[in-house]
Design a protein that fits this description.
This protein is α/β, with parallel strands linked by helices. It folds into two domains: 157 residues, 3-Layer(aba) Sandwich (Rossmann fold); 65 residues, Helicase, Ruva Protein, domain 3. It contains nine helices and ten strands. The longest helix is centred in the C-terminal third of the chain and has 16 residues. The chain is globular. The protein binds adenosine-5'-diphosphate. The site of adenosine-5'-diphosphate (ADP) has 11 residues, from strand 2 and helix 1. This is ABC transporter ATP-binding protein. InterPro entries: AAA+_ATPase (IPR003593), ABC_AA/LPS_Transport (IPR051120), ABC_transporter-like_ATP-bd (IPR003439), BCA_ABC_TP_C (IPR032823), P-loop_NTPase (IPR027417). Keywords: ATP-binding, Nucleotide-binding, Transport.
């Protein structure tokens, strides 16, 4: 299968600290890959280099064969990369639909006007917020804020979604809703790189995982095999 996202020998140095060292992996079309590792292992730095928020010190990132590393974040978004953040970042004075409209207006396709309203409703329906576009963001429950954040990310019709602990903080029943939503993304043909600490979610969603520790990949492969790897277990226990 032609590789959707290909990361090759990626490296990031912050002053004296090499936060990401020689990281290579790929995410195939329609695949959900877990990016795991203890805090500080370099996962968010990798996401930031994919989205263009950070410039790699060395290495390459390609999407469907097109080199995206060293492009500006808006150019990378135009190639079909979108991300969510660890903390939900809504625009609180706007309604649910207006939040999505802002993403549509400033996103990859610059949608304005009545068409944009229909598109916003379509994205909201996809995440389970159909008919709720007029609500005040401040009144949304946490899972609904997460849904809205996802709808905003979907505004750019991404081919690749970077989910940075998007499932964190959900109750067990909300977690199931979140997992089902990620499955819907995959069902709609999107590839997902999932940074996640909730192992039940990783097991449910990812056939394959990459595990980092101290900036390096210490294991990659089928999720069950990787999670039993003694080096991975030791890294999580703080060895
Ligand atoms: P993770 O997402 O796995 O928790 P990060 O990618 O956030 O890890 O961080 C990896 C390492 O890089 C950490 O030691 C962190 O302190 C450091 N780091 C991350 N961002 C910066 C930055 N902008 N400047 C300096 N150091 C950073």
């Amino acid at each position: 299968m032609s590789s959707h996202l290909q990361i090759t020998h990626l490296r990031k140095r912050f002053g004296g600290l090499v936060a990401v060292k020689d990281v290579s992996f790929d995410v195939a079309d329609g695949e959900v890959v877990g990016l795991l590792g203890p805090n500080g292992s370099g996962k968010t730095t990798v996401l930031n280099m994919i989205s263009g928020a950070l410039l790699p010190t060395a290495g390459e990132i390609t999407l469907r064969g097109v080199r995206i590393s060293r492009l500006r974040p808006d150019r990378i978004a135009r190639h079909g990369v979108a991300r969510t953040f660890q903390l939900v970042r809504p625009l609180p004075s706007l309604t649910v639909a207006e939040n999505v409209l802002v993403s549509l207006a400033f996103g990859r396709f610059k949608h304005w006007g009545p068409d944009a309203r229909d598109l916003a409703e379509e994205k909201l329906a996809f995440v389970g917020l159909g008919g709720r576009g007029g609500e005040n963001v401040a009144n949304l429950t946490y899972i609904d804020q997460k849904r809205m954040e996802l709808a905003r990310a979907l505004a750019s019709e991404p081919a690749l979604l970077l989910l940075d602990e998007w499932l964190a903080g959900l109750t067990p029943s909300e977690l199931q809703i979140g997992i089902d939503l990620v499955r819907r993304l995959q069902g709609a043909g999107m590839s997902v790189l999932l940074v996640e600490h909730i192992m039940d979610a990783v097991r449910a969603l990812c056939a394959r995982c990459v595990v980092m520790n101290a900036g390096e990949i210490i294991a990659h492969g089928p999720t069950e095999t990787v999670l039993k790897d003694p080096g991975v277990v030791a890294a999580y226990l703080g060895d």
